[in-house]
Structure formats: structure tokens, C-alpha cells
Amino acid sequence: MAPAALHQIRLERGTPGRLDLAGYSGIVVGGGPYNYSDAAKPPRQREVEAWFADLLAEVLGTGYPFFGACYGVGLLGVAGAGVVSRAHGEEAGVVAARLTEAGRADPVLAGLPGVFHAAVGHKEAIEVLPESATLLAVGEACPVQMFRLGPNAYATQFHPELDADAFAQRLAIYNRHGYFSPGGDARAVAESRRLRVERSGAMLANFARLHARPR
Hints:
Organism: Corynebacterium sphenisci DSM 44792
GO molecular function: transferase activity
InterPro entries: ChyE-like, Class_I_gatase-like, GATASE
Keywords: Glutamine amidotransferase, Transferase
Helix content: 25-40%
Pfam families: GATase
Shape: globular
CATH superfamily: Class I glutamine amidotransferase (GATase) domain
Low-confidence stretches: none
């Protein structure tokens, strides 16, 4: 997608009012500094979570296209009455995600192999999947790697938006936030280059292709 076709909102700087979803083709959430399981939440984080609660109620009520990576698991998991905890966190690195039968049939995952590699780095994850969710991809250390609620709302625990260079940039930004042990960032980036994590981004291209509307 051309940059001109995107509208970026930096929620850690402040939440907008209600979005007119008719003006967009879909929503993509690409991670952030917050965790739903944080013991102490500053006012801005509580504001962001409340804003997303209202937005996702509309998304799920209308079948509106939504794709959330990493932080999106917490957002969509809580919106669907699932349980998010720190039981299945993963240090920054590369994981092998395996498609379920439902995942192999989902158009957003068209063209991806049954097992693919993707970048991760998270403190929390889905412990109990929402009852109405469809499990699309699983992992070893973190069982829920991707799921869908309703027809068009997706969440991934991994980061399909990252290639190796973007992964390196992300890890530098979060250098002191507890996502990797000393030297873990260099190992994670090297692994992401070797295993070509950017190929997981095909699902974002599919999502955009399936839901883009003429401007």
C-alpha cells in the first residue's frame, strides 16, 4: 500500500474521538508499549484501553476488518472475553508458527506454507482463547499464535509487519524493556535474516487486498 493510503494514529500520544469507520477500509494495530496484564497502568494506558474497548465493540458488532499484531492479541482477546496472562511470554526471537486446518482455509493466510517463521517478543499472551474464536496458527512455547473473531477480526502474537531491519529497529527502541537478555537482540535479528521472517507479511498483503475499497 502507498503511504498516502494510510492514516497513522499514535495512540500513546493521545486518543482521537470516535472514528468514522466508513471512511476506512480496515484497521491495523502494530504493537505498542502497553500490556493488558500490567500491574500498574498510567492514565494514558487506561485511556487507550477504554478507547479500544469502544472501537472493538463496533468492529465485532459489524464484522469490520481488523488486524492486530502482538498488542492486538490482548485487545481482541479481552474484547472476546478470553484470558490474557503472562503464562506464555516469549523472548525476542523467531518462532515457527503452524497453521491449523481453519488457518489453511482462511483467505488471509492464502499462499503461506503450513509452517512459517515470524518475529516475536512479548510478555503476555492468550491463556484461554475466547469461546467464539477460531484458532488459526499455533506455536510450541506460546500455543495461540493467531486467531480470528467473527468473519474479519484477526490477531497475531507474532509480528508479520516486520522484516529483519525493522525487527532490529524495534528491538533498539525496546532495549531496556525486558524483552530479551543481553545479546538476545543480535541473535534475534540474525535469526530473522536467516529464516526470512518477512515472508509472513504475505498475510497483511492478503488482508489489504481482500478489504481495500476504492478511494
